[in-house]
Write a structure and sequence with these properties.
heterodimer; A: 390 residues; alpha+beta; Ribosomal Protein S5, domain 2; five-stranded mixed beta sheet; 12 helices; 11 strands; B: alpha+beta; Rossmann fold; 5 domains; six-stranded mixed beta sheet; 24% strand; Ribosomal_Su5_D2-typ_SF (chain A)
Chain lengths: 390, 985
């Protein structure tokens, strides 16, 4: 859908755009640097009835809101469960041991719906968007663990992702960032019961805990305290494209129309305690930077593939090619050959839709660029840090 | 981008809007975040007559008149607030001392804050209702101030603040605002004083300079406050328990609510109503769905502070701790007689004597653990809902120290409740001397883990022990009978004509619409002597085709009591008329019950008629239901009717129609018995009173006359016919009455006793089998034996109950005792609310009137059924208790020897029933002789053999000669019957 949306540009315009994006450094139509995001405005907590919500407006006028609702659900019992008697009757340490063992989630615990105005909810594009967003969330299995209450109950999370403006550009980054913010703002009622009892919650909303707990101290303090409990964050999915050897972030609709390759890269912040030693060293060096890791990568079929090609003057009858007065069949043959070359060979200044898959080297470069320290992902996450989450 | 959030800074109305956010957990386990917007206003008046500012803004009614202000402009003062004061109690002040606020000597001009009112409602509905009726009373001047909607008094919950703390803060803020507000009115404005029993709240109030007192401190400022002091429970200390050393806890801690819920849902714990055995205060039982028999709860520690009637959660004990139910009588008064209420703390949970009593139990069970008699036992692990009410009792004389009887210092005494199932209550009072020998009303406040007995406070005195007024009131209170006079709102619902009301003469009157004119029928009523509320009348006449037309005419109460008006609501709360020996507490006002509705002779009355066509074999050929107008020809008593039937010279039409009815009723009865209806028995007696002083002079068992069963049969028939009709019309919401078949295990004990002692078999497969085998339970030498067995069998049955047809499947509708597939109550609408509902449903079923929502809503009907089931039972118990009291009074000062039968036997006593008086009483071993004779009890043969100071052998079902005297029970203060064994036959 949105990615293959028809772009009303002529082959000549496409060719011009492609050419200017291929320059070093590339010149983007809106004058941004290759790694610069469109400016955005964000706020959270706009829907008081939800457990968490956020809204983001891009400067191009696209706007999305995300609401997160949580419900308590009974976990389906599995056969390998120790019987409840043991759990309830056993002494306390026993219970706690068990608890640590079984904290695990299930992908069914998250239900995501994406709504794009003007498109059916079973439209292939919408489904693909929602698949990408949930894939990023569920890929490492860490997220659903947060929804674990006890061995018998869990939270079921409903994420409603709504684009509320017309899809002026491919909405993936917008939706992802809004979801990211909404999840950061999501709070779940504080559990009062213990162990495997039927859950009982504190009726005070102010006491509700954040799904992604905040660090106890903010950036001001040193590693000893602020990094003692690494704060994980929900993933963000970034849209990256390559034109020639240039890597361009957050492409606009027009830029995407000339992309050689487009990738959706989901990155998360690693909170893996096993790599904590390595992390400590890293943090020494790159203080303030995020410990990023790739969660998923998806290629996106760029709309450029469906654009009509330009025809070189050589084979354009409106220009010289036909004027010579072609009468014999030989010339016709020659023409056909020329036409073939026009489709296979690039002619300077003539637009030709890209063909074939992305080159592995380009892909590697794209991913590398995303993960780069102090790169775009870092920048985006830092920027989102600044949003007031209350 | 403009923010979508409501910004409180920029919005000009922002200060009027606030929001509440909280988490709600529903019963089904859902957890929801709830956001409520609160719109704050400034036009909620303070309602003080001193305040002119509020008068201007106060809301006005439709005629543009301001609603009159409540709080007096000259409020009473106290020793501290001489300028006068208003009172603002907090929630726990109301919860713990509602009786205080109902006093007429003080507590006027009270501001009830909305937050307090809501909290009271959440904590206790009965107290809430009492508070509401206080706010309605004009002379008490209670004003409900909606502090949660007034801008100045609204508080938002702070982070980490508990709801209670937030509400307390709201109370303090309201008090502060009131003080500031009123100080603007005049220089000597009345003070606004907060009353609280929460130390924390009082301390914070003091910090904020808000006038606040504990209830006790406040009452001391009042004139004659001394007397009120007893009604105040002590100041609560939230962390009082923590300060105590753990070693001092006498009782195990309760589980957390979530732990209990989980356990109950998983079937590990069980929830049910806790019942105490009437013979042994240390033995309780609880019926839970998971076990066919009730679970036993033995001993103080296992009972763990549960009081009879509480909804508790229990845990089943391991099998090696299962026991038999006790065969011993253990009475609390006897065992704990010498405890000192002052110095109980730190003592062991189980006193020496209790331990001894329990040890004997253990010995007995150990001796035969191999047998399968043991019942599952359980321990109480938590209490879902206390069912504490006010209890009637009297102060245990022995618990009063000699100094206390004179001085006015506060003393701890024990109150022994009249109900033996309730543990004794520790009470702190200053008026021991006045209260000794009085019937008093007390409530339980708390039962801490550190306290052996529950603590309570004094409510009011009913009067001297053994005076008729005090004892009757005590009885009504104990059985929760609503005996206050009907309020004005109810009386306003009565017809304006009063006693002059007549059936309209003109047939065009709307009252005649769809009514059959049955005034020419020869209708008569047959009731007990002196009956004023005549519910039913009958007629019968031969038809040309040789069949009979038989009519049952029931007072048309639903014509006068319309659904959902004040009178209907009051009647539905009362549920039933309660008959005491010397008093009747009506469900409906006198005017209706004994006049306008009552089918009195010689006057025209509205009725609801059921008319059958029957053949001479009493088979029903057809039935119809109609509203009607009748004119009863005569109101007979059973005796008169019987005499008239027996007198062959009486050959008038009316007498002959009664004879026809009698003939038909005999056939109906036979059919019923053939179908397996049970004829059950309970000892029924009648107290004869001296007409002038209404002092009881004699006791007689009730005589049974054929005319009684005449009326009974036709009423049963009418009820059954109506039940079928309303069920047909309202399959989901018909109000019916069922009597469940008793579980077979209920009869185990009785069947075993009969087999062992008499070689008789009791078969309980069906009601028919039971009826037949009961017929065979005869002792040729002892005609009463059969009745005795019937009495005992009746006690094994379930009790019949009202229900709404949608809640049960059709086979469950069965009335076991009457062997009827479907049954309801239709024939006594003057004295039973269920009948009134049935009337309305029948009227709708025959399309006499449209269906009123109140008789169609299943939820409401279920609530009605639940209430009237309880009321019905209480009314029966109250009636019996009243008879028992009067029997005691009738026997006063007399000693007679009577025949009795042993109906229950324990290892240290036995229960004798004396049919002549319909009373049963316990004879303990120690009553037999002094010193107490040694005894051996054989549980296999139900034989108690005593040796030593007196040698007798007592067996179950044995006929004995006993001397019946009256005796004032020193401990319960009840005058009761005392029996002494004279000889065995």
């Amino acid at each position: 859908m949105a990615s293959s949306q028809h772009v009303l540009l002529s082959p000549a315009e496409l060719a011009y755009l492609h050419a200017s994006l291929s320059l070093t450094p590339p010149i983007r139509p809106d004058g941004r640097s290759p790694t610069q995001f469109r400016p955005l405005v964000a706020e959270t907590g706009i829907l008081p009835g939800t457990n968490g919500s956020a809204r983001i407006c891009f400067a191009d006028g696209t706007e999305a809101i995300v609401g997160v609702k949580a419900e308590v659900e009974r976990t389906r019992t599995r056969h390998d469960f120790p019987s409840l008697d043991e759990g309830a009757e056993g002494d306390d340490d026993d219970l706690e041991d068990n608890q640590h063992d079984v904290v695990k989630g299930d992908n069914d615990w998250v239900e995501m719906t994406v709504e794009i105005p003007g498109y059916r909810d079973d439209d292939a594009g919408t489904v693909f968007l929602s698949a990408m967003l949930s894939e990023a969330l569920l890929a490492d299995g860490e997220f659903t663990k947060r929804l674990w209450i006890n061995r018998r109950f869990h939270w079921k999370l409903y994420l409603d992702i709504l684009l509320i403006s017309p899809p002026l550009s491919y909405p993936l980054p917008l939706l992802s960032l809004t979801t990211h913010l909404a999840l950061l703002a999501t709070r779940l009622p504080r559990l009062k019961s213990e162990g495997d009892e039927d859950p009982l919650f504190d009726d005070d909303w102010a006491a509700a805990a954040y799904l992604y707990p905040r660090p106890a101290a903010k950036k001001g303090s040193k590693k000893t305290t602020s990094f003692a409990t690494p704060t994980a964050r929900p993933p963000v999915t970034l849209l990256v494209m390559a034109v020639g050897n240039n890597i361009i972030f957050d492409p606009s609709k027009e830029e995407l129309a000339v992309a050689d390759v487009a990738l959706a890269v989901s990155v998360g912040e690693s909170s893996n305690p096993s790599s904590s030693t390595a992390m400590d060293i890293e943090t020494e060096e790159t203080k303030g930077h995020h410990n990023l890791r790739i969660l998923s990568v998806r290629t996106i079929d760029p709309p450029s593939r469906l654009t009509p090609p330009g025809i070189p003057n050589a084979s354009n009858s409106a220009y010289g090619a036909n004027a010579a007065g072609a009468k014999d069949t030989e010339k016709k043959k020659q023409q056909q050959e020329q036409a073939r070359t026009a489709e296979s060979e690039a002619v300077e200044g003539v637009w030709k839709a890209p063909r074939g898959g992305a080159k592995p080297l380009v892909l590697a470069a794209l991913v590398q660029k995303v993960l780069e320290k102090g790169g775009v992902a870092d920048e985006v996450l830092d920027a989102l840090d600044g949003v007031d989450l209350n | 981008m403009a923010s979508l959030k409501r910004s409180f800074e920029s919005d000009p109305f922002a200060q009027n809007i606030s929001s509440k956010v909280y988490v709600r957990s529903t019963k089904s386990g859902k957890v929801q975040k709830i956001v409520r917007e609160v719109y704050l206003r400034q036009d909620i008046p303070c309602s003080s007559r001193l305040c002119n500012a509020c008068l201007k803004i106060a809301p006005r009614d439709a005629a543009n008149r301001p609603i009159p202000f409540v709080l007096s402009d000259k409020p009473a003062g106290t020793s501290v607030f001489t300028q006068g004061h208003y009172i603002v109690p907090d929630t726990n002040a109301f919860l713990s001392a509602m009786d205080l606020f109902e006093q007429s000597s003080a507590f006027y001009d009270v501001i009830v804050l909305q937050v307090v009112l809501e909290e009271v409602r959440a904590r206790s509905l009965p107290l809430y209702n009492r508070l509401i009726s206080l706010t309605k009373s004009e002379d008490k001047r209670f004003y409900v101030f909606f502090n949660e909607f007034r801008l100045e008094t609204y508080v938002t919950r702070e982070e980490g603040e508990s709801v209670n703390d937030r509400n307390d803060r709201a109370v303090r803020k309201a008090v502060k605002w009131y003080n500031e507000h009123l100080s603007k009115t005049s220089k000597k404005a009345p003070a606004v004083v907060m009353l609280s029993n929460d130390r924390d709240n009082l301390r914070k109030a003091k910090e904020d300079d808000i006038p606040a007192y504990s209830l006790a401190d406040y009452v001391k400022q009042l004139k004659d406050g001394e007397q009120l002091l007893d009604m105040i429970p002590e100041v609560e200390e939230r962390d009082a328990l923590i300060e105590k050393k753990p070693g001092q806890f006498l009782y195990p801690e309760y589980y957390t609510l979530s732990k209990m819920n989980t356990g109950v849902r998983n079937g590990l714990l069980h929830q049910g109503i806790f019942n105490v055995s009437p013979y042994n205060y240390l033995e309780g039982s609880i019926r839970v769905p998971a076990f066919p028999k009730a679970l036993l709860i033995l001993g103080r520690e296992n009972i763990n502070r549960a009081v009879d009637g509480d909804l508790v959660v229990v845990e089943v004990l391991p099998k090696d701790q299962w026991k038999e139910p006790s065969t011993q009588v253990i009475e609390e008064e006897a065992v704990t007689k010498n405890e000192n209420p002052d110095t109980e703390e730190g003592s062991d949970l189980i006193s020496e004597k209790e331990r001894k009593a329990l040890q004997e139990e253990a010995k007995r069970t150990l001796a035969k653990t191999t047998e399968g008699h043991a019942l599952p036992t359980a321990k109480v692990v938590g209490i879902i809902k206390r069912n504490w009410r006010q209890y009637v009792g009297h102060i245990d004389q022995s618990s009063v120290s000699s100094s206390a009887a004179q001085g006015r210092k506060q003393d701890s005494v024990f109150v022994i409740p009249m109900d033996k199932k309730i543990p004794k209550i520790r009470l702190r009072t200053r008026q021991v001397a006045e209260l000794l020998g009085k019937r008093i009303l007390v409530t339980i406040d708390a039962w801490d883990r550190t306290s052996r007995h529950p603590t309570g406070h004094f409510v009011r005195s009913l009067g001297e022990l053994e005076t008729k007024a005090a004892e009757t009131e005590a009885l009504l209170l104990e059985y929760d009978v609503q005996y206050r006079p009907f309020p004005k709102t109810v009386l306003d619902c009565l017809p304006k004509e009063g006693h002059d009301w007549k059936v309209p003469a003109s047939m065009d009157d709307p009252g005649w619409r769809d009514r059959a004119d049955l005034r020419d029928l020869l209708i008569c009523s047959i009731d007990p002597i002196g009956c004023q509320d005549i519910d039913d009348a009958l007629h019968a006449r031969p038809l040309p085709n040789g069949n009979f037309e038989v009519g049952v005419h029931i007072a048309d109460v639903s014509h006068f009591v319309k659904p959902n008006n004040a009178m209907d609501t009051e009647a539905s709360i009362r549920g039933t008329t309660v008959y005491l020996v010397d008093k009747r507490i009506d469900m409906l006002p006198m005017l209706l019950g004994t006049d306008l509705c009552s089918l009195k002779p010689y006057v025209e009355r509205y009725a609801f008629s059921v008319i059958w066509e029957m053949n001479s074999n009493a088979d029903i050929v057809g039935a119809r239901f109609t509203k009607s107008v009748i004119k009863s020809r005569e109101a007979f008593s059973y005796e008169q009717a019987q005499l008239r039937i027996d007198d062959a010279s009486q050959q008038d039409e009316l007498t002959n129609s009664i004879r026809t009815l009698l003939e038909l009723s005999k056939k109906l009865k036979q059919k019923r018995l053939d179908a397996g209806a049970l004829s059950l028995s309970s000892p029924e007696i009648k107290v004869h009173m001296e007409s002038e002083t209404s002092d009881p002079i004699d006791v007689k068992t009730k005589e049974h006359l054929p005319t009684m069963s005449l009326v009974e049969e036709f009423m049963l028939l009418a009820n059954t016919s109506v039940a079928a009709k309303i069920y047909e019309a309202f399959p989901q919401t018909a109000i019916l009455r069922r009597h469940a078949a008793p579980p077979k295990t209920n009869f185990d004990e009785l069947a075993n006793q009969l087999r062992v002692k008499k070689g008789l078999d009791l078969s309980v497969e069906s009601s028919r089998a039971l009826a037949d085998s009961l017929d065979l339970c005869v002792d040729p030498k002892e005609p009463f034996f059969n009745t005795l067995i019937r009495i005992m069998a009746t006690r094994c049955m379930m009790s019949a109950e009202y229900f709404c047809s949608g809640t049960q499947s059709y086979p469950e509708f069965r009335h076991y005792g009457l062997a009827s597939e479907i049954y309801t109550h239709f024939t006594s609408p003057i004295r039973r609310y269920a009948d009134l509902v049935a009337h309305r449903q029948l009227a709708a079923a025959i399309e006499y009137e449209p269906v009123h929502p109140a008789v169609r809503s299943r939820g409401r009907l279920e609530a009605v059924c639940k209430n009237i089931n309880v009321r019905h039972r209480n009314a029966q118990l109250a009636g019996r208790a009243s008879i028992a009291y009067y029997v005691g009074q009738a026997l006063r000062g007399k000693a007679t020897e009577e025949d009795g039968f042993v109906m229950k036997i324990f290892s240290n006593g036995f229960v004798v029933l004396v049919p002549r008086f319909g009373i049963e009483s316990l004879i303990r071993l120690r009553d037999l002789a002094e010193p107490e004779p040694a005894a051996t009890y054989d549980a296999e043969t139900y034989t108690l053999t005593t040796t030593g100071s007196r040698e007798v052998k007592v067996e179950l079902f044995q006929k004995v000669r006993v001397k019946v005297t009256d005796q004032k029970d020193e401990t319960t203060g009840k005058r009761g019957v005392k029996m002494e064994l004279v000889s065995t036959y």
